[in-house]
Amino acid sequence: MRTKAKVEMMFLAGEWVRSDETFDVYDPQDDRHLAVVPSGEDQHLKRALSKAKEVHEKSDNFPTHERIRVLQEVANYMEARVNTYAETIASEGSKTITEATKEVKRAIETIRISAEEARRINGETISFDQHQGSENRIGYQYRFPIGIIGAITPFNDPLNLVCHKVGPALAAGNPIIVKPASTTPLSALLLAEAFLHAQLPKGYLSVIPGSGRTIGNGLVTHPDVTMISFTGGLDAGEHIIREAGLKKVNMELGSNSPVIVLNDSDIDEAATSCVSGAFSAVGQNCIGVQRIYVENGKYFPFLNKLIEKAAELRVGNKMDEKTDVGPMINEEEAKRVETWVQEAISKGAKIQIGGRRNGTFYEPTILTGVPRDAQVAKEEVFGPVVIVEPVDSLQEAVQYSNDVNYGLHAGIFTSNIDKAFYAIQHLHVGGVMVNDSSDYRIDAMPFGGVKGSGLGREGVRSAIEAMTEPKVISFNLKQF
């Protein structure tokens, strides 16, 4: 049912702008009508690009100290409004209010780290006299802003993942145009409010909601866009690679993350960590735990403990602070997860707990006996489902862990340092979390994967490096 909702405007090069074309945003929990949002058109993208190009060509007007000031003020503005940001995240998306509050605090930290790293974009001197005949030359390299960044962001972290693109881009001195997920655009627009308050120079930031076909493809293919920063699905990522042309592409494409639990581990700690890693954010998390390989000696004790802890989770109203698991982003996604689980069951898998859907809600689900050709075993489920399998050895667990076309994060629980390092050396992933689930991450660390999990690394410092280019300077002193 359509109810009274807020009418939003897009943030176009520092100004709020309306559009004749709009779309509606609904709360996935109860289909409550939240907002009418402008849908960007070609004219809006062209205007944003024109303004971004203009300020990039005059980048001396945005010195480092001013970038730091803006980012610090944005963080302070957000910190004073944590509840507003959290309620927006929880209302338009899947997160519980508790999870949304944590996301806001992480987003604030991401912006603050960006401010700190802005002062550390350093170069280095070069010893030109290492080459015979260059004794009279001295020089250095420094990093300069790469140009206009096109950012395409997903629904599952609608604030912090936007901050992970906007913060580093501005810290490096680049203008950036954001196309947020159409299911969750309100958090990105609320972030733009903070930058307007901080008096970010006009042209450096645009947030344009709209279709991927118009705004997304426009950013990907436009020659004035120097780099695309994308977080989303593998199919969309492959499309971007084909269409982008000669520009930088940084992308995180999700995963099917494994966790290994060995006989010498603390199974209570491992089960607690894996339940959180598998079912937080309703499993709609790129580094969420999807497969758990347990050494035979601890398989049944671990499985029983995992089921026990999963049974304690409260599924329900995401605005209730006592709720652990809310709805998925829409009923279509919940039905897809249901279909994948049913396919696994038809091939011999067993449900240990969960497995039921009610509208957009899907219960936390633990499966055993899942064949490796099932969708839920080989692809990214992006829902509250985890597989548990026994293995004979660490080597077998590593082999199974690597047997998918993804490699973002993995976890291993062990008290043996040699076994930990075996996993570190042999797991084909971008990050190995020892005695944590795959779901562990801080916003300052490099973040990314291999194979179908993407290209490049996020994390503030890594993103800044990707969003800048080195320029080499050489002085021939004979002329002075």
Q: What is the topology, as strand order, of the major beta sheet?
A: 15-18-19-14-13-21-22
Major sheet? 7 strands, mixed
> What is the typical, i.e. mean, pLDDT?
96
Shape: globular
CATH architecture verdict of the largest domain: 3-Layer(aba) Sandwich
Question: Which fold name is given in CATH as the topology of the largest domain?
Answer: Aldehyde Dehydrogenase, Chain A, domain 1
- Secondary-structure-based class equals alpha/beta
Domains (count): 2
What is the CA-based Rg, rounded?
Answer: 24 Å
Say which CATH homologous superfamily of the largest domain is assigned. Answer: Aldehyde Dehydrogenase, Chain A, domain 1
State the distance separating the first and last CA atoms: 77 Å
Total number of beta strands: 25
Q: Level of helix content? A: 25-40%
**Total number of helical segments?**
15
**Which CATH class of the largest domain?**
Alpha Beta
Q: Uncertain regions: pLDDT < 50 for 5+ in a row? A: none
Query: What is the quaternary state of this protein?
Result: single chain
Strand proportion: 15-25%
Organism: Texcoconibacillus texcoconensis
GO molecular function, one term: lactaldehyde dehydrogenase (NAD+) activity
InterPro entries: Ald_DH/histidinol_DH, Ald_DH_C, Ald_DH_N, Aldehyde_DH_dom, ALDH-related_metabolic_enz
EC number: 1.2.1.9
